[in-house]
Amino acid sequence: MSQGDWKLVQGDALTRFLFSAAKTERFAEFYTGEGADPATRESFCRDVFRQNLAQRAVDSAAALTCNEAVIADEHGVVSFPDFRPLPFHVQRWLAIDLYAPSTGTFAFRLGTCGGVRVWCEGAQVACFTPFTRNLMQHTDVEIPLRAGKNSLLIHLDELAERELICALHMVYLGAEALSAAFPHTQVLAEHQCASQHPVVSHTNVCASHLLTLMQQREYGPQAEALLYSALKHISAREEASVFSVLPLLQIWRCHQGEYFSDVLFRRIKSTLMGYRYWRDERGCDAMRFDTENHALAFYAAQYLAGQCFPDELFIASCRKGREQQAIAKARLENWLSVVEAQGLAELNAIVSYPVDYRGLSALALMADDASLRDRAGKLIKGVQA
């Protein structure tokens, strides 16, 4: 037992590992897909991911080098938070050495956000791949260990949809004490899991800035660059891209024919026609729909896009614009009724209210329906007061 650096008794979690850099690959980039499952509200891309990758064979010989140390949080969980505005398959490897007093099988409770596979001395001994998004799941496993040193290699992977928690929780259940140590390799740095935070990056200020420039008649290379960036952001259906759709609709309605060529305005139209305006429409992406400000933005965008193109066929929904507008109107009326009765749930959120304001101001400015315009305007005035 003296070979290990720290002792492991019943109920202890493994809290120190060496880990590799992340391997990331864009997932289902060209897959059109279906809408979200109405029962689970899981994205279509997660269903595809689980069906195709959960039980695949993973080659431990292809493991990336583990040369940084990670320490679990106070709950014994090792996690790697991240943020991806599009669906990405994220994989990472971890390594640890266990020392057993005798040869036998030893019980562990294995928990993961994502999927986890474990190899001991090159042989796979566990595979648990629930892939429930950001929700820790557990299973009990028996790991065969020989007397003395046993090298464990662990593979974590997950589908990143917006914010991601790829995590491992490995608790020893056996009665006979073990010990553990880092593998004999150079440790470049040490990280405390509790201090890690996802890096969030959105580009949806692009379309709003462009709208401001057009309102001020400040055209030039910067305006074109902003337009291309906004169109790319929306066409890829990145997370938060709906907040770029609203100013783009205003550009189409109020500034069509100004400065940009007819070709670019046709591209604006095709981008708006090809967008996914709610979770029931076809699409394989990582967009969030379920917060107060996201829901308002999607409803307003769907209503206004349908209003702009009443006789056109929208690709993701296979509905004409006037159908989109009618569906969105019912959704907006319900949203407004709840907020009028109960107030804005995110009113005190410094980041969220300006986003709510975008949806309300777009309706107040552009909605053909006078009732929607008035109700949105009254909410804006009420909050400002």
User: What's the end-to-end separation, in Å?
Assistant: 69 Å
The total tally of domains equals 2
CATH architecture type of the largest domain: Sandwich
CATH topology of the largest domain: Jelly Rolls
Largest sheet: 12 strands, mixed
What is the C-alpha radius of gyration, as a whole number of Å? 26 Å
Helix content: 25-40%
In percent terms, what proportion of residues is strand?
Answer: 25-35%
- Number of DSSP helical runs: 9
The structure class reads alpha+beta
Structure description:
The chain is α+β, with helices and mostly antiparallel strands and 385 residues long. The chain has 2 domains: 6-195, Jelly Rolls, CATH 2.60.120; 205-384, no CATH class. The chain is built from 9 helices and 14 strands. A hairpin with a 4-residue loop joins strand 13 and strand 14 (319-320). The longest helix has 22 residues, at 321-342. It is elongated and about 80 Å long. Residues 186-202 have low confidence and may be disordered.
Blueprint (SSEs and pairs):
Blueprint: E1 6-8, E2 16-19, E3 23-26, H1 44-53, E4 68-71, E5 78-100, E6 104-113, E7 115-120, E8 123-128, E9 137-145, E10 148-172, E11 178-181, E12 190-192, H2 205-215, H3 221-235, H4 242-255, H5 262-273, H6 292-308, E13 313-314, E14 319-320, H7 321-342, H8 352-366, H9 370-384
Parallel strand pairs: 4-12
Antiparallel strand pairs: 1-11, 2-4, 2-5, 3-5, 5-10, 5-11, 6-9, 6-10, 7-8, 7-10, 13-14
What structural keywords apply?
single chain, 385 residues, alpha+beta, Jelly Rolls, 2 domains, two-stranded antiparallel ribbon, 9 helices, 27% strand
